[in-house]
Design brief:
alpha/beta, 13 strands, globular
Length: 327
Amino acid sequence: MSDQAVLITGAAGFIGFHVARQLLSEGRNVVGLDSLNDYYDPALKQSRLNILRQNARFGFVQTDLADRPAMAALFAQHRFEVVVHLAAQAGVRHSIDHPHAYVDANLEGFLNVLEGCRHNGCRHLVYASSSSVYGANTKLPFSVADKTDHPVSLYAATKKANELMAYSYSHLYRLPVTGLRFFTIYGPWGRPDMAIFMFTKAILEGTPIRLFNHGRMRRDFTYIGDVSRVVSRLAEQPPADDGGGAPAKIYNVGNHHPEELTDVVSLLEKELGRAAVRDMLPMQPGDVTETFADVGDLMRDVGFRPETPIADGLRDFVAWYRGHYKV
């Protein structure tokens, strides 16, 4: 990869921050973009950003993805060879009450990224999709070859739409695109709206943990360190033509090992040295009972093998949480 800066959207977000740190550690120049919205505590985003700003090869732009003129100007100025698009309005539950935020960021915003890539000589767009696209699928593990026509939330529908939009641009303009279906990423600097973070906070505060479907849920928890390494590796490997005239590829990024939520809570109890108060609740709208990633093609194409056992990853997260929040 050349000295030219890589654009990382959502750079103050959880995955974006870690990917930016990974690329900077490899000697790359990085331009980070983020709107710093208040979907969750902006102070956490600011703390991540402060760490990135300590590196002279990092530049930051605060812009909303849906701001078409600003996005066009940014792409025209830098002519990024590689774009890692991780910014999005995240969260399944939030999409039920705030649908317009998802259309603005995930559809309009994504179109602005595609247009920027198309008009400014981008060599490879890597973008975040989600395991939520598998929706009501029951065949496990989830394979990228499976049909994904039954999203059970608007968030999932926007992510499926991103895959279709990216494919059409790849086909029309020969833009190399790689979509990543992320499976329940966790680790230090994680998002406050995600299970591990919420469980840890609740156990330390002695407040109830809400376990939906009475705790009978399994998730393919994937450690952020494994994820940032694979994104870096993929960024350097634009896909070949798929045989249909589009240099496009989609991968699952998961641990290939689902964990019972109740087991995860037990590990956290052990790590934190105190018991959780468990509030057993029925299934929620938009949720699925199990996620399980088939990562065979990722292992074949880039040698990706998730290496972090859940107990080790949780230990790292708890250590970060205690340090950051001084508890």
